[in-house]
Amino acid sequence: MSGPVSSRPSHTVCRLALMLLLLGITTGCMSRQPTSPVDHGLLQAETELAAGHFSSATEILQAFMVSNPNDPTPALALTDCYLAWGKPQAGLAALEEAAHRGAPADEIADRRLALLRAAGAWTELRREAALQLQASPDSTTALSAMVEAALQLGDCGSAQDAAAQLTSVAPTRSANRILAVLEGNLELVREHAPDLLQADEICEPHCKLLVGYRLVEQEAWGLAHCVLQQAVRTEPVSAEAHAWLGESLERLGHSQQALAHFQQATQLAPASPLSWLLLGKYHMTHHDLDAAEDALGRTRELDPGNPAVYLATAELCASRGQYADMTTWNRKALSLAPDDPGLWQAVARMYLTRMLIEDTLAMEAAHRAVMLAPDDAESHVLLGWAHLLRSEPQEALVELQKAVDLDPGSGEAHYLLSQALRQMGEESAAREEQIRAADLGYPTPGSP
After folding, report:
1. Strand ranges, E, within 157-299
2. How many Å from the N-terminal Cα to the C-terminal Cα in the chain?
3. Using CA atoms, how far apart are residues 40 and 330, in angstroms rounded to an integer?
4. CA-CA distance, 59 to 82, in Å (whole number)?
5. Which residue, 9, 70, 92, 400, is most buried by CB atoms nearer than 10 A?
6. Over the range 104-119, which residues count as b (16 or more CB within 10 Å of their CB) and which as e?
7. Cis peptide leading into residue 205 (ω within 30°)
């Protein structure tokens, strides 16, 4: 994570929000009896949330919103549920309804920031945080949101200003860590972010590149971008710094800037396979397949023992519909790392997402993944999925039940299990699994 704002809350947090709302009803509103319909509605919703049943909880709260059209309490509870469920747009609509019903401003403010962040609406988040800071300059929630929004928008200067203000108000470990990185103060990074730079670690003159790379490993793209921007200024001949800066910018959605740094990296170090590999993946993402082929070809020449480049080449062939060549390159990748379960999983998923079950490597890869990682739910998901595509629901059921047992929070496993049950004619059980998958946020946009 590239900012101090936490990720979306779990259903436990949503339960707590409901309990606090209920407490407010029963202790703060003396004119209402503790056994009012809204009280019971919140208790019922809380019970459903205890089991992670977001669908049922939202249905209960929506019903109580209809029967209590002037009460903001169920609308606020519904907002919290949508946030925990990962449905921020629906949460924003519920929050607007709560405001329309007269919910206090302090009940609205933090929720709006959390929902905008969950929606990835960074421009709107920055605007909302700025408005809240005008009214309350020391709001730690608004300052944290400002830091996160600025990082995601690539505005390192504004992020640093907001982080400095945040640490003056609430000098938490997280805030100090972020400010140290943004200031480029390596001594403070060693003090507040030992995961990025240890106290006795010798890395000059490439310390900022090292910090940036470790942030890339953590997928903290906003912070990585800012520190790598410092690195390319202090180490202008570092092709690696330009390459990872390009990757950070690409992940933040700044594609044109990213391309410039990828190209700079290949010019500075034309013999660097990393630069060519990242450039090739960039071109694949943007559907310039000829340019991707050229870049990946250079990578294979420079680093023939790296399975990642052959896997990327297989993806390129798949994009072109060249499935025989895709299998050739996948087998080459697997020959270089035959005991890597993650590689077998990646290959299996490449076929299954395209429903290419007739290729023998699809089932072979799924079986091999289970052999190498029998305690990994992903392996059983893939093998179960493969059996589904071969219309073998009984075999699929066995694997997908194992996946659910290993990872009860896998929405994909529950969803595929529902498909296996449906193929077997178990419609009621299938429906239950499908609802459970929905409660877990699956399918998501872009899901197979």
Report:
1. none
2. 26
3. 57
4. 11
5. 400
6. eeebbbebbbbbbbbb
7. yes
Question: What confidence score (pLDDT) does residue 53 get?
Answer: 87
Identify which of 87, 69, 55, 73 has the alpha carbon closest to the alpha carbon of residue 18: 73
Q: Which CATH superfamily is domain 172-269 in?
A: Tetratricopeptide repeat domain (1.25.40.10)
Cα separation, 115 vs 112, whole angstroms? 5
Six token digits for residue 257: 């800037």
Q: pLDDT tens digits for 7-47? A: 445 555 555 555 545 544 433 333 344 455 556 767 888 88
User: Using CA of residue 58, residue 61, residue 67, residue 68, what is the dihedral sign?
Assistant: negative
Which one of 3.40.1180.10, 1.25.40.10, 1.20.120.1200, 1.20.1250.20 gives the CATH number of domain 343-448? 1.25.40.10
Q: Which two tokens stand for residue 182?
A: 């943004």
For the chain, residues classed under CATH 1.25.40.10 are 11-119, 172-269, 343-448
The set of residues, in sequence order, having a beta carbon less than 8 Å from that of 241 and lying 6+ positions away, is: 208, 209, 212, 228, 231, 232, 235
Candidate from 18-32, 77-91, 255-269, 276-290 with smallest mean pLDDT: 18-32
Identity of residue 217: E
Is 249 in contact with 257 (CB distance < 8 Å)?
yes
Please give the model's pTM, rounded to 2 decimal places: 0.85
The DSSP code sequence of 345-366 is HHHHHHHHTTT-TTSHHHHHHH
CA distances from residue 301 to 6, 48, 298, 370 in whole angstroms, order as listed: 43, 57, 5, 32
DSSP reduced 3-state for 53: coil
Those residues whose C-beta lies under 8 Å from the C-beta of residue 113, and which sit 6 or more positions away, are: 5, 125, 128, 129, 132, 141, 142, 145
Q: Which two tokens stand for residue 427?
A: 């419609």
Q: Looking at residue 119, what DSSP letter applies? A: T
Q: What is the dihedral of CA 225, 229, 230, 233, to 10 degrees?
A: 170
